[in-house]
């Protein structure tokens, strides 16, 4: 054997000249000053058949690190890494009593000895935007609501997940954030219009025309659900053309920035004003338990969604906000639903 083991410092040029390296280990990558530059030099060599292992604790003062970007993208399936998180108690001697006896502030404990991924990825200058307790409570109930076997799940290779079957007479709302099937996944959210419970979803990277077909199928399955979709960018245009060709029923008219509907057009052009209103409506619904979610992927995305100090709420670098967009807008869409079949009458007694 003619194997070589080389140890290199994390300098600006340490990734240059790796040549035929078959395995590279980047230790404490969070703290590499030239992390992204080193990675860009190393990865093409490893991609040809080697193995790259990236290890690190996390730095709570570093919001925009190469390590966090890689890890979050790995969780979303957007790179070839397999994410593994080890909590502080992976070592048998680190018991709860050991943790409680540490002479550190709670913030320092969470930084140096994280118990969860959320603690490891959070920074001192960011705050979780959504109520973590509410989200964790919903995650605890996931085993009680596994996706049901359904013909649409089979038809679309499990891109569609059904959590509750439609009930005759019930009303449902559906909103789609389409994609072109390349960098970002699409997200379709279907909720019970009265309870706010998620009953179905679709999520994945497929062309906009295919997303439109799923949208149409779910609308029709859920009693002609009141529905709309984003028309931004090329993907939105392709999606809109397909929806109109399918003659999808019960579409909401276009929402304008003043909150009124444009009765001449369909599909929502969601600029910053509408997007901000939708995400804040979603935050309120989660905080007051006015929405029930059954999707692990959706809840994971919400937990990662952050509010950096002095900035607008946003996804972390390397992450996604497709579920956030679809879920916030389906709640906004619900406000424009004509319920029908009910008349409120007031009487004066005496």
UniProtKB/TrEMBL annotation:
Record-given protein name: Putative terminase
Species annotation: viral metagenome
